[in-house]
Give the backbone structure.
Amino acid sequence: MEQLLSEIVAKYNYWIYVVLMMIGFYAMIGKRNLVKKLLGMNIFQTAIILFYVSIGSKRGGGIPIVDKHAAMLHGVDATGVVNPLPHVLMLTAIVVSVSVTGVALAILIRIYRKYDTLEEDEILEKIGR
Amino acid sequence: MNTPNLHLYVLAAPLLTAFAVNLLGRVSRTWIGPLVLGALTFSAGGALMTLLHVLREGAFRYTIGNWQPPLGIELVVDPLSALMLLLVSAVALLATSSALKSVAHELPGREHLFFTLYMILIAGLLGLVLTGDAFNLYVLLEITAITTYGLIAMGSGRAALSSFNYIIMGSIGACFYLLGVGYLYILTGTLNMADIAQILPGLDAPAAIATAFAFLMVGLWVKMGLFPLHVWLPNAYSQAPTGAGAMIAPLMTKVTIYLMIRVMFSIFSPDYTFLAHAGIQAGIVWAASLAIMCASGLALAQRNLRRMLTYILVAEVAYMVGGVWLANGTGITGAILHIVNDAMMTLCLFLAAAAIIYRTGSLEFDRLNGLYRRMPVTMAAFTVGAFSMIGVPPTCGFFSKWYLILGAVRAGHPEFVTALLISSLINAVLFFRIIELAYFQPASDLSRSEPQQAGEAPLLMLSPLLLSAVALVAIGLGSGPLIENIIRLAMPPGFAP
Amino acid sequence: MIYHSSMLPLAAVCISLLATVPILLSDCKPNLRESWTLLAGIGKFLLVASMLPAVLSGHGFVFTLAEVVPEVPIQLRVDAMGMFFALVASFLWICTSLYSIGYMRTLEEHNQTRYFASFTMAIAATIGVAFSANLLTLYLFYEMLSLATYPLVTHECNADARTSGRKYLTYILGTSIGLVLPAMIITYALTGTLDFTAGGILAGKASAATLTLLLVMFLVGFAKAAIMPMHGWLPAAMVAPTPVSSFLHGVAVVKVGVFSIVRIILGIFGPGLLQNLDLGVIITTLASITVLVASLVALTQDNLKRRLAYSTIGQLSYMVLGIGMLSAAGMTGGILHIAMHAFGKITLFFCAGAIYVASGKKYISEMDGLGRRMPITYGAFLLGALSIIGVPPLGGFISKWNLLSGTIESGQWILLLVLLTSSLLNAAYFLPIVYRGVFAGTGGNGSPVEIREAPLFCLIPLTATALLSVGLFFFPDVFLELVHIAVFR
């Protein structure tokens, strides 16, 4: 038990992302309101972004901006800076997630104009009629 | 860098045209057709040259901006991706020709918007085929997805809702894929596929590698609509504007299957994929067999031509997944051949559907009566496509089915053989039901009340349809050389047809 | 047999396929359209016949269309067996074309262009089956034939035709996709080839159980041979116009089924293998049951075409029975019966059609006294019937004689009994028709005066085939020679 707890504490970033992801997943699958689904999707994506960002960080790592001359002379001490690549990747991922959200919102507006509601059940009912 | 950069132009042409279409299309609609067709003809020609080049000189890699991998983004042009490049650009070209008419018909005044998205989608698909970078793949996957969401939402009726559901499911798939990439990055510290493939075998972290693999696979399966993860697909594809459906349906799923093959063999190795976890391989073939039967069964329940086609598409996806996972050369040959064939068959059938909808306005079964008399050429092409789906020689559908069944026999998977045969029989029922509807009952009473129903679709829709029908037979008869000269080279190492 | 590469087989197959284009184009000019059909028919026959001397002297022709699967190209090859079948089919097609013109025009049938176009495609597929060099090519043309005949079967476009069309496809496509295709692929997986090779390719490649299963799959799978229980489509297909029934369901389609089985037995399994494993008994048992049951059912049919259909089912199994005996005489008789039965049965169907054209009657019970009004038709009918019963001096006697001597040669006495019983039954279901036509109804004035012989276009072909049935008794040499080459070399 204790081992498990320490495992959880030691890798808390993973657990947080897993919990967040599950919340998002639940919202996407379980909720019947389309906006809530979309929010769930955002939570889901954010969880993954957090996951990426956390794997790039290091205990005591600084920002990855180095003095050009110092780097030329001594090289870069990789332990001193966090890994920038996952962060950069996430910039792209954020862009992607924002654009998906944008498209989804636009579509939601269309749905709302057409059916006057964003509850999936009600929409299906209206379509059925 | 003395290799020709043709493949880059193949990729760039639709992308740049997308913006040109948006700008010039606002000024005058007449610009759109020549621009779009010109760009795609250029792409298709370039893809053909690239393929010939690769076959002559062998695979090559191209680093964008000359940033060397593993830091720079790499494009990989090997026989398989060159073949896919040609397939995507050719199918897109044919579909576009038909789309020009149907979009003008269905979305008057919004053509430039439609074709902007459409061209970006094609560029995204071409990029997916070429990329050699796992993260880049994710971005391109989302580019194609977002444009697809937009295109589908332009449809009428409940298209917007279907599109939204697709967004949710598509995002889940993409996120799973992204997670898988994350794990791989943690393990290897690189995102370049070739690099990952080199580092992975030396690692001792079976659980993490398996997790990464599982996430990647599940993500792609959601994206390709493998039964039972297919729920979004029939609605989305059947309610999209006709012009969009005719391009998305043949290409999206096929490209995703190609990506699965890439992940399985270019990131992971065949050894890992098939042997590392006992029972997985056989289990997936079983799952694919069940998927084929269930999807075919669902297709039987449909009363609309395009919806029926989408369920067949779901079954076909399982054909290819099962074929790849048979884990022998014959099965993989069948799967790759089926990527080509199924793209052409689906294209042919969707183009026929587009032509029918253009003339009659509906694809409900009870409106198809007497179509053979009203649109003989369209229906002739449709019949060829139907025969190919059923698997009648010498259409190409027969030959990929041949390899798939042969692969299953050799691998000892009778359930897959059974599933393929039953699915062929169900396809026969499905298509002959339509052929019978269209063949019987003279249309006299219908056409009198609605005179515009009579007649063939315009030439711009008819010619790609006929071309695709001819291609079905040509590919079928040429499947021997196709396998011998191209697919044999495209096989993962260690496998032969 | 020495094979030479040549375009001739391709030309023989494709000439009628190409004729569909001008036929479809000359939709509005019936005379032009029919001349295309006749031209293609005569051209096809001449092409086939031009290869005959070479085949008789032990030379064959081969043409490879495309390499599709390793070791299995789409290939046409003219050998004695294929020549035999192609000769029969292409000659009878000319007769049928003539007959079609008379029949379709007199009845003023709709959609004649579609009809003639489908017909040319069907005959192309039939010749394709005859000239197939391997099982894959055969399967290709077999399927093509199934699909080309669908519009012919459903020509009437009414509810009946729809039901029959469904039944037809269910049986034919269902078995070919569900049984022949997997059997073919398993064969390929076992042997790596599908070429029809004298002596078979399967020997020593699989266990007896597998081979038995494969054999049954092929036998049942080639449903066009109408071996029970796969016979249901044939009576249903009788809703088609009579020329279709006579040529396709008396000659081309059904014999393609038998021909495929012959190819399987001679070229894939090999008689030797079947003899070693004692599998011939499966074939003969299935065939015997079909022969007897079909003959008995034929007795009960009042619709003339349906009676002929059941008779066909029985006669087809004669051929299968002969092959299944695996003795030289039996196989000779079985294969020879393909030709003899073809000439006899097409005559009978032509007569049935002529009666329908002239009087509009379909049921035997209505045909009392008709023979006195249509003496030529009934004379031809009698000749056809006698040929199928196996009475000398008609062609059917030769094949039946060979079949009987085959049973004696191989000592299968039960089969002898089956054949003799069936011949009696044949007589029992054919002769009353003639009897009623000529002698019944003399008391009253049952026979309407206005009925006269069918038009000349109908009469000429049926007289020709009837006389040829006689001719084949006296001059069977060409066919016998071809069968001998096929069986013994």
Remarks:
- Chain A has one domain: 2-128.
- The mean pLDDT of chain A is 85.
- The helical segments of chain A are 2-10, 12-30, 34-56, 68-74, 84-115, 120-128.
